[in-house]
Write a structure and sequence with these properties.
The complex is a heterodimer of chains A (156) and B (210).
Chain A: H1 8-20, H2 23-33, E1 40-55, E2 62-79, E3 82-91, H3 95-108, H4 114-141
Antiparallel strand pairs in A: 1-2, 2-3
Chain B: H1 8-12, H2 21-37, E1 43-44, H3 59-68, E2 74-77, H4 84-94, E3 97-98, E4 107-111, E5 133-137, E6 147-152, E7 160-162, H5 169-177, E8 187-192, E9 195-199, E10 204-209
Parallel strand pairs in B: 2-3, 2-4, 4-5, 5-8
Antiparallel strand pairs in B: 1-9, 6-7, 6-10, 8-9
Helix pairs in contact in B: 2-3
Classes of the chains: A alpha+beta (156), B alpha/beta (210).
Chain lengths: 156, 210
């Protein structure tokens, strides 16, 4: 058994990057990368609701935060003897974005394309998102107020 | 979530569902409606090409399952039909809940030789709609020479004849005994290839031997 190309958490990471990527960036990459491949849609895009649940400070009781619209689909692609299935889940009802995510995910699992896709699509998208988050954080940092209080009883 | 469904290999090899999910499901639903409103008459299931049934299910059976099941229905496969591939297919394409025990299933899918009525939900007089639907994969829907069934009741003007469809006479005896429980009971869908015959619980069945 050879070393797997990627782990489940690698895949989760790139799916998160793709799901957060802005439409324009995805579209630009899609035009460049996807054109030559033929995809088979195992599941056409479908829109539904998912219940988002949360826990305060990640320890409290679970509560229902609200419902969110999700569009999902599954694309399959065959290159040589490798058939891979990619899943696309995005927030909102933009079916084309969900298609792109699924297509990228399918190609990222292809042994012959994994490295180049990772370098050309995922890494730039991740860098752009990190830069945008850092900028946003810096903007908030300017108005940050720190409260110095006694330690709360709950954490004592 | 079932861990095996999230496996990438499983999705890569998953057989396709309806090519045109909305219109195929509508067409097949119409066929089922016709089958149940004209008991004993042969209907042809009209799903477009591109449907890939999982082993060991037939095309017609698969089209029925894709049409009738959703996340709120529960499904039971008999041992002969309940391969892992069939379960995964049903779960992926319909989201139906898997039940191991026929007595709590909304839909039970069996081969003719395994068909049993007494294990199924009959519903109650207050809620007869909770009675199960039994879908049987039968070897033939033709009328045999030695014995046939005479059907009367709603949807039949005078009488309708059909064969035993490979189901043992004991099964039809069970079905006849169930008639006095109406409106409780089980609706029957008999499938062979892409052909379908419906025998709803309202139909009165008698066996005629010649």
């Amino acid at each position: 058994m050879t070393q797997p190309l990627f782990t489940v958490s690698d895949r989760q990471a790139w799916l998160a990057v793709l799901a957060h990527a802005p439409r324009a960036a995805l579209s630009a990459h899609a035009e460049r990368v996807l054109g030559t491949h033929r995809f088979d849609w195992l599941r056409e895009p479908e829109t539904g609701l998912a219940l988002v649940r949360a826990r305060i400070a990640n320890r409290g009781d679970r509560f229902n935060l609200g419902e969110v619209t999700i569009t999902r689909c599954i694309a399959r692609v065959s290159l040589g003897e490798h058939t891979t299935a990619g899943v696309g889940h995005v927030m909102g009802r933009d079916e084309q974005r969900a298609r792109w995510v699924a297509q990228f995910d399918a190609l990222l699992q292809q042994p012959s394309l994994h490295a180049s896709m990772q370098a050309e699509v995922i890494d730039p998208l991740r860098a752009a998102r990190e830069a945008a988050l850092a900028q946003e954080q810096a903007r908030h940092e300017a108005s940050r107020v720190s409260f110095y209080t006694l330690q709360s009883e709950a954490t004592a | 979530m079932n861990p095996s469904l999230s496996s990438p290999d499983l999705l890569a090899s998953m057989p396709r569902g309806f090519a045109d999910a909305t219109h195929d499901a509508q067409a097949v639903f119409r066929n089922v409606l016709d089958a149940l409103s004209r008991p004993g008459r042969l209907q042809t299931l009209q799903a477009s090409d591109g449907l890939q049934p999982p082993v060991p299910l037939s095309r017609g059976l698969t089209a029925l399952l894709l049409t009738l099941l959703d996340t709120e229905t529960s499904l039971h496969f008999s041992d002969a039909l309940g391969s892992e591939a069939a379960w995964m297919y049903a779960r992926f394409h319909t989201g139906a809940q898997r039940v191991g025990d026929a007595s709590s299933a909304d839909f039970a899918v069996v081969r003719a030789a395994e068909a049993q009525l007494d294990a199924l939900q009959l519903g109650s007089d207050e809620a007869p709609q909770s009675g199960a639907t039994l879908i049987v994969d039968v070897p033939s829907l033709a009328i045999e020479r030695h014995a046939s069934l005479r059907l009367t009741g709603p949807g039949i003007e005078h009488e309708q004849r059909m064969g035993l469809c490979g189901l043992p006479p004991a099964f039809w005896q069970q079905r006849i005994a169930m008639q006095r429980l109406f409106p409780r009971g089980v609706d029957l869908l008999l499938v062979c290839g892409s052909q379908l015959i419906g025998v709803p619980r309202s139909t009165v069945v008698t066996i005629e031997e010649s």
